[in-house]
Amino acid sequence: MFIILGVLGGLSLFLYGVTRLSISLKKLAGKRMKRILERFTSNIVMAVLLGILVTVALDSSSVTIILVIALVNAQVMALQRALAVILGANIGTTVSSQIIAFQVEVYASLLLVVGFVIYFAGNHKKTTKYLGLVLFAFGLIFFGLGMMSHAVEPLKEHHGFTSWIRYLESPPKGVLVGALITAIIQSSSATMGIVITMASQKLISLGIGITVMLGAEVGTCADTLLASIGRSREAIKAGIFHFGFNVVCVLIGLLFTDTIANVAATISPSNVARQIANAHMIFNIGGVLLFVAFIPKIDWLLDKVVPQANKKVIMAEN
Known about the structure:
There is one protein chain. The protein contains 17 helices and no strands. Helix content is about 80%, strand content about 0%. The chain has one domain. By secondary structure, it is mainly α. It has helices at about 1-40, 45-60, 60-75, 80-90, 95-100, 110-120, 125-150, 160-165, 170-185, 190-200, 205-220, 220-230, 235-255, 255-265, 270-290, 295-305, 310-315. InterPro entries: Na/Pi_transpt (IPR003841). Keywords: Cell membrane, Membrane, Transmembrane, Transmembrane helix.
């Protein structure tokens, strides 16, 4: 019970911190980000780079993709550029895994104190207050990770847990668990935070971390699919692309799990937590490089897959 409460408490702080961070960053730079997305997508390469930068700035690929779906729905952004931004968002989200793998929970208290002071020293200056909230939110995220890390440490000696971990050594089962966890908590960053934290305590192997990470890539599509419901045909195509791209990449990733693991281990030979973060980045960069050149053809395929509005209804209205 102590372990469960510790993990849930840490996860609650982590998720609340992610939510506050996303809200504060949108308040601080949301309108500016929207204008940047509208202006700086002149070509596919620029759109991918922009997707990376915006996702890093907003600390959420889901927020970036939902914003893109809204812009496509409003006919502000062309679909091919939107697809490229979505690809970039998939790379941008790996930055949080890299940050988590640095075991930054040691800085949690400092960020909480500095963020608190800046927030209350800001008086009526909204920009200063939101900056304080951003730092405070980062502190909550790191503090939550620290709580989870300390809570799971006794699991090293828990027979039931080690038996369950062996269950995850089957790649399809690991993917399923990763997808379910991410769909439930609505955050692939949180799933990766849990995985990297457990790896830092030597509770899971690199192979298990990779398969759960692959599942998280599928589970993260749930909120963007929901965001596309009831939108225009182009917006629905963007949501379907995100889901289809992630599923295809995961299926390919399952075939090359050993290769990804070997490359990640070569980069960081002795740190499993860092290896999982590296694998996350390698996988997403590889997926983008594999498909970015085919965006025009993917656009054509989506045009065939997603039906036009009911022609009979249109004719009847005319």
